[in-house]
């Protein structure tokens, strides 16, 4: 295990190559980081585009096609979720880049400013939660998930009875698969 830890991150540093961009690497000030990557072993090359930064430029040209909404639309719930949620992973501490962004949202300050301040306050970064206290144990029930899906389908043009018929068919198939 220590070998693995030493190895992590060393692979790219060992060669004279630019740092590989990865989502969540906190190498730009975009709220949501997106990296486009195309590569092929037979071409021996990798093509990366920092899509989030390209989008940021596009957004300046076409602000009418952008909406920023101050709620989290959870696909598994009908009601929008207000306010940043507490970190609740049982597996890992809050990723650094995400923590800076959450602080920026909470404090209503520019990301760069927050990063500069909090990089010296790493002890405040939210830690992983104890087993059983995490998000896995707080998943919405199956009925809520289905109601949320129905809500989206209807707004996308489905007739409710058609969507419900599909749900019922899926349930029957699931039951049959279980019976096997
Ligand atoms: Zn970016």
Question: Could you walk me through the main structural features you see in this protein, from its secondary elements to its overall organization?
Answer:
With 180 residues, this protein is mainly α. The chain has 3 domains: 16-68, no CATH class; 82-136, no CATH class; 140-173, no CATH class. Helices cover 42% and strands 9% of the residues. It contains 7 helices and 4 strands; from the N terminus they run H-H-E-E-H-E-E-H-H-H-H. The protein has helices at residues 2-7, 10-13, 51-61, 96-107, 111-118, 142-155, 160-179, and strands spanning 35-40, 45-50, 71-72, 81-82. The strands form 2 sheets. A two-stranded antiparallel sheet has the order 1-2. Strands 3-4 form a two-stranded antiparallel sheet. Helix 4 crosses helix 5 (111-118) and helix 6 runs antiparallel to helix 7. It starts with a helix and ends with a helix. The model has no long low-confidence stretch (mean pLDDT 91). Bound molecules: zinc ion (ZN). Zinc ion binds at residues 28, 30, 33, 50, 52-53.
């Amino acid at each position: 295990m220590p070998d693995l830890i030493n190895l992590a991150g060393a692979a790219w540093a060992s060669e004279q190559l630019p740092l590989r961009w990865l989502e969540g690497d906190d190498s730009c000030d975009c709220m949501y980081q997106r990296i486009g990557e195309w590569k092929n072993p037979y071409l021996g090359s990798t093509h990366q585009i920092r899509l989030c930064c390209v989008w940021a430029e596009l957004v300046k040209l076409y602000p009418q096609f952008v909406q920023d909404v101050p709620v989290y639309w959870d696909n598994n719930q009908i009601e929008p979720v207000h306010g940043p949620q507490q970190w609740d992973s049982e597996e890992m501490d809050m990723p650094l880049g995400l923590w800076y962004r959450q602080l920026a949202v909470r404090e209503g300050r520019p990301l760069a400013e927050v990063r500069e301040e909090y990089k010296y306050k790493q002890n405040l970064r939210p830690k992983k939660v104890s087993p059983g206290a995490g998000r896995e144990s707080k998943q919405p029930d199956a009925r809520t998930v289905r109601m949320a899906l129905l809500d989206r389908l209807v707004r996308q043009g489905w007739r409710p009875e058609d969507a419900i018929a599909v749900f019922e068919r899926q349930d029957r198939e699931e039951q049959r698969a279980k019976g096997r």
